[in-house]
Every structure is written in C-alpha cells, then in structure tokens.
Amino acid sequence: MRPISPTARKRFCEGQATLMFYSIRHITRFRYSQPVHESVTELRMQPRSEGPQSLRNFQIVTNPRAQLYAYTDYLGNAVYHFNVLRAHEMLRIDVQAVVEIAARPAPPAAADPLEWQRYNRYNLTDEHFDLIEPSKFAKPSRALQEFAAAHDLVAPQGDPLTALRRLNKTIYDGFDYEVGVTQVHSPIETALAAKRGVCQDFAHVMIAVARSWGIPTRYVSGYLHHRRKGQYRSGEDATHAWVEAYLPSLGWLGFDPTNDIEAGERHIRVAVGRDYADVPPTRGTYKGEAESELAISVTVEPTQAPVRHEEFLRVARPLKQTPQSAAEKLYHQQQQQQQ
Asked: Structure pTM?
C-alpha cells in the first residue's frame, strides 16, 4: 500500500478531504504457559461495507496456519472461524484491511419535536424492538437508576437528538477514562461505582439509558483514527466502541461518549450488536491446563486509494473475432444436433 502524500495528509488534517482511505493492521497474540491443542477461534474483525464506508481490501493470516471459514451473523457482521488441532504454545492472528470512507452530512441542530411520536410499530421493525430490550451488559440496575437520577436523565429532555447529545456529554463529563478499572466482562455497575472505565463501559451506560427512553440503540465496535497524539481520551493503539441510536426521520446516528463527539469519517465500523457480548473481536477456547496471555497491537493510518482488483479492469482493446474454420463449423453443428 502506498503511503499518503504530504498534500493529501495536509488536506485530511485540516478536515478538507471528502473521501478518505484508511489502512488498518490489527495483531492479536495468545501465548500459553504450556502447549495446548484443539483451539477453536471466532473472529469479528472485518470492517463492514454499508453507507459511507466501503471495504476495499481485507486479509487474515494465522500462525500456526489454519483453514478459515466464514459466515454472516444475523446482525450482518462477517464472522471468521478456524481451529488448530495440533499442539501449540502461541496463536498469532494478523488482520489487515483498507477501507474507504466518504464524508457524511452533518445531522441537524435538533430533531423534529414530533420525533418521539414516531417511535411506533409503523416506523420500527423487529430489529429495532430487539434493540430496545435489555441485554447482557446494557440493562437496568439500581446503580444505573441512581446515576440517571443524579444527572436528571430519568426522562429525556427535548427532542430525541437533543436528549442523546446531552446524554453523550453527561457520560463524558461524569467518568474518567482509565484502563484496568474494568475488564471486558465487567457489568456497568463496576464503572458506575468507580466513575472510571473505558469506551466499552461508557457505550453500555449510554445504551442502557437511551433504551430506557424507548430509543433503539446498538453497540458498535471498530477503530478510531487519531489525527494527532492526545486528541482523544481513547487509546490510539486499541479497538474502539461507540453507540448508534435510531431516529425514525434521520436513521442511525453515531455517538461517542468516550470523547464527547458524534461518529464521523474517522470512526471505522467493524461490527454492531446489542452490546459487547455480540461483537467481541476474538472468542475461542482450547484444550489444556495452560494459562494464557493476550497481547494486542492496532494501527490505523490514512493511506492512498488501493490499486483496483482485476474484476474492475476496463478492457482497452477487445479480442478480434476470427472466422471459424470449416472443421469448427461442422463440430458446432454436430453439438447442436446432439442437444
């Protein structure tokens, strides 16, 4: 992949680019204290292609090498799975992708005052209703009720878009970003009690509150490109998580409570679900008594447009039709008679 030119980088950093390409490399390494065998792993790491985002290139390399199988889950996420039967002390998964993201139109300053009335069975589908119900990591609790009451979030204020923006900022102001306070399987009560956490925790809190208002809300896992070091609270060398909420007149809109911003062309979507339980980047098991160590490296960089694949090649000089010989004509006539 060609590095981005200085001119293109300058335009991007100044926010002038209308179409951007990102190169992503995501390396995951599991190391075991003693050999394990028959490991089975499932991956949700392929960026989605929908709306302003298009996947242009994607590949997975494993060590030890394994045969990859793929399917699409009911949420539209690409899922890869593989197994390593022989004994191994390490499993490395190297994922590389290139995505194209177009500039998105800015949402309005506020939604229609009648938007709340549009949350009805005429405008919502089964998918939307499923995203109003509590889920494993985004569900009501006493701690959540106390948080909502303390920040005047029990009932939404204003139209849905205004209320969601206020909720986004309230979570940003009410929590410190700190790695290590919670784990991937921690309930939201842990972050609510400590008033600290990471993007996954803040997304779950926002989802739980928004659903209590009757707004279909889903969890998004992916990546966030940082234009400059220290621009956002979330880490540059890690995956990211944010929220998408459905407004009947506007569609799905993204909110990033970790950084108090709305999702835009620097947010790269990989998978969506009810909460983290639906979209972990890796999930698996193995046979053996070993302890495991997990190491992750994530790099997201702007890049140039990838070279087109062969299926997009334009024919510049077509083959000339050559006259058939007498033998060829006789052969084709015989074939037609046999059919």
From this structure: 0.85
